[in-house]
From TrEMBL:
Pfam families: URO-D. The lineage of its organism: Bacteria, Bacillati, Bacillota, Clostridia, Eubacteriales. One of its GO terms (biological process) is porphyrin-containing compound biosynthetic process. Gene3D superfamilies: 3.20.20.210. One of its GO terms (molecular function) is methyltransferase activity. This is Methyltransferase.
Length: 329
């Protein structure tokens, strides 16, 4: 099997040659909106994105982040959000590079993937600030619902445009709904405000003939069944702090998952090679029996080069050994 055939075998619950990270089989199509908003100089200076949020990229940081103050926050009063929000146009973006890259991807060998960050929850706290957003979800649900409606409509229009311009195999949608301890919002609030719109987004992705892969490297266990109801095809970023075996039982094989290897646990100094290999084998042995599982580090890599080399070597060896010793009937 080539890379695509192998990961799709896992996706369909069929026998693969080996178990490994689905992300090794994708090629990314550059997103003109992401390039405009998030590919910033690593100089610690302030830059405004297309929605008006100020971001900075500090020297030595892994990536840019919002830098929101009382003075620069986009929405200062949730009851007057319509007066303060300017929704960016998607009509004047340059798709030349995206179309060029998409046309060169060998779709027989690889999956064409479009990375789409800034989901409903993430965009809401970029516009309001995290603390204010969390309070508004509880205290001003009607206003938040109306704001999220506008964001969702923009996202669906953009997804349709992405499909028209580049026709990816996968939309890699990004929205962290929690931390390593719990969800940001109570499940009741998430179900009332986020879930219905997220299902519309999922429907749009599917109507365009694409797989919906959702990144969230956090706790999602309390809403695991909801992920299936929404129509998420693949959950990428499944951290080991979730009870993954329980989630596999709850979702009854309807949700493919990528993750399970505890990256922070093995991406440390003075760890032994055997400890790294042991964690890889633990994840494979524990989660692959549940089916449709891609063992990986949720954020993709160890940042320490030596640790990453050992991790990749063990995943390559043991992922193949496990597949050979545990054939799917």
């Amino acid at each position: 099997m080539n890379l695509k055939e192998n990961v799709m075998a896992v996706y369909h619950g069929e026998q693969p040659d080996y178990y490994g990270d689905l992300m090794a089989a994708v090629e990314f199509i550059p997103d003109p909106l992401f390039i405009q908003d998030a590919l910033l100089p690593q100089d610690g200076q302030e830059y405004m994105d297309s929605w008006g949020t100020i971001r900075i990229f500090l020297p030595g940081a892994p990536g840019p982040h919002p830098h929101i103050t009382r003075d620069n926050v986009v929405i200062k009063d949730i009851e007057k959000w319509e007066e303060q929000l300017v929704v960016p146009s998607i009509e004047d973006l340059d798709w030349t590079l995206a179309r060029e890259v998409a046309s060169k991807i060998d779709r027989n060998e690889k999956l064409a993937c479009f990375f789409y960050p800034g989901g409903l929850f993430e965009r809401s706290h970029f516009l309001l600030g995290m603390e204010t957003a969390l309070m508004n979800y509880m205290e001003y649900p009607d206003e938040m619902k109306a704001l999220l409606r506008v964001i969702a409509d923009h996202k669906m229009a953009y997804i349709r445009r992405v499909a028209e311009e580049t026709q990816p195999d996968i939309i890699f949608y990004h929205d962290d709904w929690g931390t390593k301890q719990n969800l940001f919002l109570p499940p009741r609030v998430w179900r009332e405000l986020i879930k219905p719109l997220q299902q519309e987004i999922a429907d749009t992705i599917h109507e365009c003939g694409m797989i919906y892969m959702h990144h969230a490297d956090c706790i999602l266990e309390p809403i695991a069944a909801d992920l299936v109801e929404i129509g998420i095809d693949i959950w990428q970023g499944v951290i080991a702090q979730n009870d993954i075996v329980k989630i596999q039982e709850i979702t009854d094989g309807k949700l493919a998952m990528i993750g399970g290897i505890d990256g922070p646990k093995i991406d440390v100094e003075n760890i032994t090679e055997e400890k790294i290999r042991e964690e890889v084998r633990r994840a494979v042995d524990t989660y692959c029996p549940g089916g449709r599982f891609y063992p990986s580090i949720p954020n993709g890599i160890c940042f320490r080069e030596w640790n990453n080399d050992i991790f990749l070597d063990e995943l390559s060896k043991y992922g193949r050994e496990y597949a050979e010793k545990h054939p799917i009937a």
